[in-house]
Design a protein that fits this description.
about 290 residues; mainly alpha; two-stranded antiparallel ribbon; 12 helices; about 0% strand
Length: about 290
């Protein structure tokens, strides 16, 4: 359920929750802060992701690695090592992995500060600094409330009603977003081969089952529509997706593979892309 709340804040970040920017940003800041997310920091970097989806150089998240960045060959293809890495990704991939370290960001940030908490981060421009500070204030106020609740009600109670659900939210965020943009059939582009529309089509619709699709406000099973029309409210996305499927034909990507099977396939087969080609697909072996 809290993942659904996170998605409502995501709607606010896209200015699709309300016709009024101030309303969107207030409720986005409130809801994301309550889930220990720096709202404006995420909103800005997520907007850049939408503007650069599928670009090897500029996509803000899950930028595909190149061969030179691969780990040891034995670990790369060890089932046990892959399982451990999946568990790590699903537990700390969002926080601190993405928010604090921007671990799967593009190579252009290498050596630069790219934390979502730093107003001077390379992720942001100088005009964004006040928004980043407000985001940090919201995060630390919420964190202080969690600490206060631990003192008042005990760590076990807070763990049961907040910390464990918080980890479930983080797990879902990484699982959903990873599978939206990573698979053997999803292309990435470099240079002039990349266009915004090509990038917008380089995502895939996946269903988590009717109950979770409903609970997640259809963030995953209408994701192609969301990338083409990112300001469309989620409650119109199912209807629009029916028309988009017909219009795109073979260019519409949908995968009905069971989620855990798709995760294993993507993680074990999508290891790197060629460093020189302009249109690339993931490869497995170096």
């Amino acid at each position: 359920m809290l993942t659904g709340v996170w998605v409502i804040a995501h709607e606010c970040g896209h200015q699709s929750f309300s016709p009024y920017e101030s309303v969107n940003n207030f409720f986005g800041w409130l809801l994301h802060s309550a889930l220990l997310v720096p709202y404006h920091s995420w909103r800005i970097s997520h907007g850049k992701h939408h503007n650069n989806t599928g670009s090897c150089e500029n996509d803000e998240v899950f930028a595909p690695p190149i061969k030179e960045e691969l780990m040891d060959e034995i670990l790369l293809h060890s089932p046990l090592a892959n399982l451990v890495q999946i568990i790590i990704m699903l537990t700390i991939g969002w926080m601190p992995g993405y928010l604090l370290l921007n671990a799967t960001g593009p190579r252009k940030y290498k050596g630069l500060s790219n934390s979502h908490f730093n107003p001077n981060s390379a992720l942001f421009s100088p005009k964004d600094r006040l928004d980043i500070i407000w985001s940090d204030i919201g995060f630390f106020v919420a964190l202080a409330c969690v600490v206060y609740a631990c003192v008042q009600f005990g760590f076990q109670t807070v763990g049961k009603y907040y910390l464990l659900p918080y980890m479930v939210v983080n797990y879902h965020l990484v699982l959903i977003t990873y599978l939206q943009h990573t698979d053997v059939f999803i292309p990435h582009f470099r240079g002039s081969e990349w266009t915004w529309f090509r990038g917008a089509l380089c995502t895939v619709d996946r269903s988590f089952g009717w109950l979770l699709d409903h609970t997640f406000h259809h963030i995953s099973d209408t994701h192609v529509c969301h990338h083409i029309f990112s300001k469309m409210p989620f409650y119109h996305a199912q209807e629009a997706s029916e028309h988009i499927r017909k219009a795109l034909g073979d260019y519409y990507l949908k995968d009905d593979t069971p989620i855990w099977k798709a995760l294993w396939r993507s993680y074990t087969l999508c290891k790197y892309v060629d460093s020189e080609e302009t249109t690339v697909f993931y490869k497995q072996r170096a």
